[in-house]
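Researcher: We plan to redesign the surface later, but first we want a full-length starting point. Tokens attached.
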């Protein structure tokens, strides 16, 4: 039996071939879920890091992030709490405490979380939501704007 499945999204074709010999089974799956490979992938999140210029937290980093989800637009604003650098006992990495306000614009909810920013990577992990704010990643939105950073699921446990 021989199958040749060519799945190419919504506008592709689905070809299957069957050979009556039961001892010979072959499967060939070619999946192009983005309509034949012609569609460009757009970025659905972004992050901006800004150095604060005034006040008692002058010189520290403020973070603004946004993320497009199935349920609407999610945005986050993170600011340092006390400016004190904490050192991890086991790892030796330096962290700073941040307060993160997460707003879901479609649901109209706003939540506050206390997190740590690792100073060498500038990543903020929100454990309660399993989300991470990271400076890594760049791309283009659907409107053509160039954006950097990533605000999304944290797959590390």
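Model: Full-length starting sequence:
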């Amino acid at each position: 039996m021989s199958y040749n499945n060519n799945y190419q999204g919504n506008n592709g074709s689905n070809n299957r071939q069957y050979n009556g010999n039961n001892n010979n089974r072959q499967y060939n799956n070619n999946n192009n879920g983005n309509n034949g490979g012609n569609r460009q992938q757009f970025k659905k999140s972004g992050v901006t890091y800004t150095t604060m210029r005034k006040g008692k937290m002058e010189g520290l980093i403020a973070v603004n992030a946004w993320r497009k989800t199935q349920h609407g637009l999610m945005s986050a604003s993170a600011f340092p709490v006390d400016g004190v650098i904490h050192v991890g006992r086991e790892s030796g990495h330096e962290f700073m405490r941040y307060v993160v306000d997460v707003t879901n614009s479609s649901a109209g909810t706003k939540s506050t979380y206390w997190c740590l920013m690792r100073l060498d990577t500038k990543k903020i992990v929100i454990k309660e939501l399993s989300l991470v704010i990271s400076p890594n990643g760049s791309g283009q939105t659907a409107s053509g704007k160039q954006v950097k950073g990533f605000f999304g699921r944290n797959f590390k446990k």
